[in-house]
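Give me structure tokens for this 344-residue protein.
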Amino acid sequence: MRLPDKQRIFDAIDHKETSEIPFLEIDPDMELVNQILHRDFSLGMHCFELEAEDNIELNLRMGNDLTFFGHVWRVGRKEMVDDAGRIHYVDGNIKSLDMLSKLWFPDLDKLEKRLEDHCKKVEGADMGIMCKAQTPAFTAMCAMGYSDFLLNTVMDIDFVYDMINRIHDYCMKELEVFLQYPIDVVQLSSGLVTNTAPMVAPDDLEKLETKYLREEIDLARSSGKRIDFHIDGKIDNMIPDFVEMGVDILNPIDLCAGNQDIYQIKELYGDIITISGNIDIEGVLKYGNPDDVIEDVNNHIERLARGGGYIVSSSHNLHHYVPVENFYAMRDAVHNCKTKQEQN
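Here you go.
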């Protein structure tokens, strides 16, 4: 297995076609984490919440070129725990303006100590760090509940904006903490798009989410950081907006039940944004065998890595129905790949 090198990520962002393809698979289900590390961590956590040593060891064994640091802000969430110990979102609990007192904010001092420890343990290696920054619209939607959030964009928009603005203030403070440390990439996320379209009209999306994302992106880019935007759903016609916002990497390029074609995205936008993802978690990774996975990964590399601008990863976070052997096949296909540039 090859050694990590964050320069592969930077080369992809800069659209430099090199002999090696970057690999970045983040936040797999903890059942896969336990198989990779031969440990017995709780299935109710995320791997980016692990102690620094375990987080870094996991990313080394996964063959990633960056580590992934972050936390889950469960403000206002009603959740349930299944028999295996996994935590599932059910609804939000903050349903009205007079309930905003239930908003709570993570301890920035504790978060900073975790990040400081993480940076010290990565120091000296060629592995970079990607930090998961909180974003206000999706956090508010989870705290309020999806249905109530969308309904309130019509019935009680002042309540929605009040919650978003309070959360955004925290998000900016958290990001300022991140930017004091030698991180390489800031990841922002959105959860307002389905397999067919955004949940709200374009003008409303701008007011509810995009303008806040711009502030975070501008702050991160002012410190020289690269931007990874994790946005599920059908986003192909939104890519020019992402480029204008300053997004460097677009992930995970869902297949959207056949409604979205990564190869068309590459043809239309591959020279202005780096794409990451699309190895199907509901197809070849779940149902195929390792040979099928290798063939699919090689096909993606052959068609998407020309001219740079492609990072191999899955079409979403790896769930526990993905056999660990298929993950290893994906990783090893990338590590063993030699592009035509090197072959020539």
